[in-house]
Write a structure and sequence with these properties.
about 25% helix; seven-stranded antiparallel beta sheet; four-stranded antiparallel beta sheet; alpha+beta
Length: about 280
């Protein structure tokens, strides 16, 4: 990093270094304040440089290997660095030592994006494209990416993001439907499928937990019913039990679905103002 010349006064540098450094470094500074003036700027520069310099060794997850590189940017899952050869590399955070994440969070904390008043889930809106939806979900603290981003261009976003924590007893994955112009039309949160023997022990607790979560977000449902019975679910069907109107337009539906001999809990967010027919009673 280039510093402007001439150097500012020694007192100014000392105060700046005290503000930036830890206690051990501050103690060392106190021992050199009375040294000859020509040496002070050089020593202070050496002491304070790590706080500014972003070229550093990056350790592998096991701590046995390092690569020298300049920090460029990072997000919830990756960091991009530039090597001495001026090549940029994007590295998955899971392949780096935990100390590297601590360094990133200390010196380059990710600012939480401002909440969009039109959002309905994890800052997503029905204006989002695949690219903007991907960027928002990568920064999410609720869901995580489960596959390499390089494959998204081939397979799309369906099933790529999964809830970080269980909802009751099950995890959920996100599935998307898009308009012809490329905007988000519908988002579904679908839990892992479970056999009929787990309907009461796994499907129902997850469904109950989602009633609480959706109620906290959108208030009292417009329509509510009991857990749909397995007998009411034809193969490939979705049977809603609860319906909320989204504050900025659209609907949220909660219910269960059947796929073959398995059952799952589904939350469907749609930009349409749904007309509920045959809600579970």
């Amino acid at each position: 990093m280039k510093f402007p010349l001439p150097f500012p006064s020694c007192n100014c540098l000392v105060q700046t270094a005290h503000n930036l450094c830890d206690r051990q470094t501050q103690s060392l500074l106190q021992t050199i304040i009375d040294m000859r003036p020509p040496l002070i700027p050089i020593l202070l520069l050496a002491l304070t440089l790590p706080a500014f310099c972003d070229t550093r060794p990056w350790k592998s997850a096991d701590g046995n290997r390092t690569v020298q590189g300049e920090f460029i940017k990072w997000d919830a899952t990756t960091v991009t660095i530039r090597t001495d050869g001026e090549k940029e590399f994007t590295i998955d955070l899971s392949k780096l030592h935990p100390d590297e994440r601590k360094w990133l969070e200390t010196y380059h904390s990710l600012a939480a994006p401002a909440a969009d008043p039109a959002s309905f889930f994890e800052n997503l809106t029905f204006r989002d494209t695949r690219q903007t939806a991907l960027a928002k979900l990568k920064a999410s603290k609720t869901v995580e990416m489960t596959s390499d981003e390089t494959f998204i261009g081939r397979s799309g976003l369906n099933g790529v993001f999964r809830t970080r924590q269980k909802i009751g007893t099950l995890t959920g994955s996100l599935y998307f439907d898009w308009t012809e112009s490329g905007n988000l039309k519908e988002l579904s949160l679908q839990t892992e499928p479970r056999p009929a023997t787990s309907y009461k022990t796994e499907v129902e607790p997850c469904w109950e937990r989602l009633i609480d979560l959706l109620g906290a977000l959108y208030g009292k449902p417009e329509i509510k019913g009991p857990l749909p019975s397995m007998a009411s679910e034809a193969d490939g069907s979705f049977v809603p039990s609860h319906f909320w109107k989204l504050p900025t337009g659209g609907s949220a539906l909660l219910g269960t679905a059947r796929d073959g001999q398995n059952y799952q809990v589904v939350v469907r967010f749609t930009q349409k103002n749904a007309e509920i027919v045959g809600i579970s009673k």
